[in-house]
Structures are given as structure tokens and as C-alpha cells.
Amino acid sequence: MSLLALLFQKSKLPIIFAALLGILTGASSAALVAVMNQALTSRTVADALLLGPAFAGLAAAVLVLRIVSQMQLNSLQQMALLDLRLSLCRRILEAPLRKLEESGQHKLMAALTEDIAVINTTIAVIPSVIISLATLAGCLVYLAWLSGPLLALVLCVVAVVLASVALPNRYAYSQFFRRRESHDALYSHFQTLIDGSKELQLHQARSEDFFNKELQPTAEEVSRISRVTNNLFIIAGGWGGFMVMVVIGIILFVVPRFQPVDMPTLAAYALVVLYLQQPLDGLMHQWPNLSRSHIAMKKLEKLGLSLQDPQPPSRDAVINPRFERIELADIAHSYYREHDGATFTLGPINTTVRRGELVFLVGGNGSGKTTLAKLFTGLYVPEKGELRVDGVPVEAATRRAYRQLFSAVFFDFHLFERMLGLEHPGMEDQARAYLSRLQLEKKVRVENGRLSTVALSQGQRKRLALLTSVLEDRAIYVFDEWAADQDPVFRELFYRELLPSLKQQGKLVFVISHDDRYFHLADRILKLESGQLVSDQVATPAVTPTMQVG
């Protein structure tokens, strides 16, 4: 979808009103040129003076219409920019997690910054584009009224100009697309620069290699492409200006040799064509912005983040949090793993978990534990098979409601400073009690629904994430190797106090763990190997010694 079509979809009436104002501005500008020509070709000064009021009125109209139309379009621009940003953020919130993970953070950040900035720039120039087009159309109508044959000549020259710049513009468009792809790579390097700053500073050779062989060549490529494309448009603009002079020259010095035309008409044509140079230059200068915005829209669509109004998700579906069982029936999911250059397949998985159970999921690194947890929570959509709650399949219409059954702390969790979605009476008192229990009361305070800091060690941050998760009071809890960064005292607290407490409350608790010394605390142990469920057994002290995690 083009940017103009998108704006029309989202702001139909304001766009029409602003466009009409722009057209009136352009028509008034064309009429002003006509009055100027009439004054210049008047037989007497007295006749020219009679046109003064018309000139003054049209000049005032152009001033007022230009200001009003640009103010209207500026307001439209800001509203459209706000709507586009919020729509894009909403799209990211609604997008499938697997799609976001495959896109990568750097591409999403480029979309939120680079693409939205380009679209905003294009929206900003729409007023001048509309006014330039309206002025051009009005002047062409006036030229047609003066002389049809001369207008045909002018249009032929314009066609030659457009044809001559079409090929460079097509090449420039392809280069803009390359530049946008290079921007993704550059944002990736920026992310590495920030996330890997410790490792880079500790290894001078690695730091120099990264800067000289990764970051600098990509930045230079972006700069080179920008320079080449901008030069192409500069040349095209200069060529267009030159052709305006060519048209004037043909009108003044060639046409009279082959066709008798009175001098006032020639002068009028020369004046109008000269006046048209400004709107034509404006259109030529705005063409790069229009090209970049088209590429930005295509890039967003490629990421699955089209800015078209989506179908509103159903918020009426409800899944009973007092369910009895959840079935994973022939669940299977595949994805490409770049680190080993192969496609990993999880499943088919068949198992049933019940409310009030404490289930441990074990297995070696890369066996598919986290992938299974994301399928179980509804964050991933299975390619085959289905999830069932008390025998009822989880479908697209109910997947959002299904996800609301869960609270999870994944290995790569994000910690929010605000206690978002937890504003209920007594929440801060509960939070303070858990802070004390997790020995964080001297480091973190909860005030007005906000944590005083999240700048803590990884283990402490995980404890804060655990606090937030418990306060959510969901029916199902998922913990992805939560105890991996914890001291022994907090491991004991987690396995021997917190998990049994959640189980006693009737919660279904799903724990990914390597801590075999605590396996006997589970009701069930599921074991994965290479994406296959190889063991599903009741945990007892008698069997735990045989459970080995590869």
C-alpha cells in the first residue's frame, strides 16, 4: 500500500480538505501568473493598472491559502505520525513471537527509527507536492487557453525530460533499497557495539577487527550509496532546469521560424514556463523522499508490520482459569538454527498436564526445552497438532485469552521498572513482603507502583522478575532455568518454598531445570532429547538417581 493510500485510509476527510486547500493554492498561483501576463501585455499603463486589485486579491488569496493549507497539512502530518508510530508499536505487540525473533532486534529498531523517520519526512513534503502539482495543472490549463499547439510542444518536451530521467531514477531507487538493507546491517553493528562493549574493551585486536572490518565498511557503504543516489537526483534536477531553458529558447527562437505566433503569446508562454521552474524543481527534489518512503513501507510489510488497519483482535474470548487439564496433542514446530546451519524440529509432543501439578522439564542444551515452553504458553503457534484446555482446542480466536493464563520468567526475561498491570489494593504491601523474603529490601523500594531501580546483578534482577511474576497471580507459572544464576540459599527458597507454595494454591507450575538434586520435588518429569519427548514419568526418590541430564 502506498503512503498516500494509507493516509487516505486513516484520515480521509482531513486529507480531502487539505488537498482541496492545496489545489486552491495552486490554482490561485496560476491565476496570479495569468494576471501578471495580462498586465505585462496590456496596451497601455492604464489598462495594466486596472488589474492591480485582481493582482492584490490573488496575492492575498495565495498567501492565506498557502498558510492555511500548510497548517492543515502540518496538523495532519503530526496526527498521522503519531498514528503510524502507535500502529507500528501495536503491530509489534500483536506480531507472532517467532516472526519477531527471526527479524532480529536490529531490524525492528531500524523500522521504529529509520523507516518511521523517512515516512514522517515524506508526510512533511506532501503539502508542497500538492501545491506544486496544482500550480502545474493550473498553468497548463492557462497555456492551453493561450495556444493549444504551443502547449503540445511543451508537453512533448516534458515527456522527453521524464523519459530521460526515468532510467537514472530507477537505478537510484534500486540503490535506495540497497541503502536500506545496509542500514539493517549497520543497526546490527550498533547493537553489537553496545551489547559487546565489555568484550571489545577487553580484547584490543577484536575491537580493532570489529571496527575496521565490520562497522566501518558498512558505514562507508551506506555513505557511498547515499552520495551516489543524491548525486543522481541532483543531476536530474539540474537537467530538468536546463530543459526549462530549452523550452523557453524553442518558444522564443524556433517556433516563430515555422509558425506565426504573436509576440504577446510567446512572451506569456516564456513567462509561465519560467514560473513553472519552481514547482518542477520542487517535485524533482521531493522525488527521493517519495522513493524512500515507498521502500520504507515495503520494508515494514516484509517484516510483517504493515501499517494498514488490522482486524481488531477478539477480546471477548475467555478461558476458565479453573481448568482441570491442558493437553499437548501431536504438537510439532520447526525452525532454522543459524549456529549449526540446520532446521531443528521439535515433536511431535503428546502429554497432558493438570492444575495443581509441579512439572519439571529437563534435557540437554539445545534439546528444545524453551521452544516447548513457548509453544505451551501460546507464544509460538504449533505448525502441527494443537493445544487443548479441558478438551477444547486453542484456536486463533482464543489464543490471546489462553496466554493470559500464564506468568513466565524466561531465561532472557525483560524486567519492567513499573509494576504494569498490577495496580490492585495491597499490591505494594505484598511486593515489600516478597522483597524482604528475597533479601532485596535494602536495594529496591516499591513506590507508586514503580521499582526504585533495576540496575542490579543478574541474579538480583531474576529475583525481581520472580517477584513480579508471583504478584500476577496467574493460573500457570513457567520458570525457565530461574535458579541458574542464584546462590544456594535462593535455590533452596525457590525449590523448597516458593514452588510448593504455588502448587498448594492450585497453580500449575512448569519448571525448566538442570538441578537434579531437586527433581524428587516434582510431581512429573518430562525429558527432551533432540526435540523428542523421551521420558514422561512420576518423580519419586526411587527414580531420581537414574535421571541424567545430558
TrEMBL record:
Coiled coil, from the record: none
Residue stretches making up the ABC transmembrane type-1 domain: 15-292
Transmembrane segments: 45-68, 117-145, 151-173, 232-254
Keyword Calcium: no
One Gene Ontology CC term in the entry: ATP-binding cassette (ABC) transporter complex
Record key words, sorted: ATP-binding, Membrane, Nucleotide-binding, Transmembrane, Transmembrane helix, Transport
Pfam family, one: ABC_tran
All copies of domain ABC transporter, residue ranges: 326-550
GO molecular function, one term: ATP hydrolysis activity
GO biological process terms on file: peptide transport
Topology with respect to the bilayer: Multi-pass membrane protein
Cellular localization per UniProt: Cell membrane
Alphabetized PROSITE patterns for the sequence: ABC_TM1F, ABC_TRANSPORTER_1, ABC_TRANSPORTER_2
Entries under PANTHER family matching the protein: ABC TRANSPORTER ATP-BINDING_PERMEASE PROTEIN YOJI, HEAVY METAL TRANSPORTER
Name of the molecule in the record: ABC transporter ATP-binding protein
Source species taxonomy: Bacteria, Pseudomonadati, Myxococcota, Myxococcia, Myxococcales
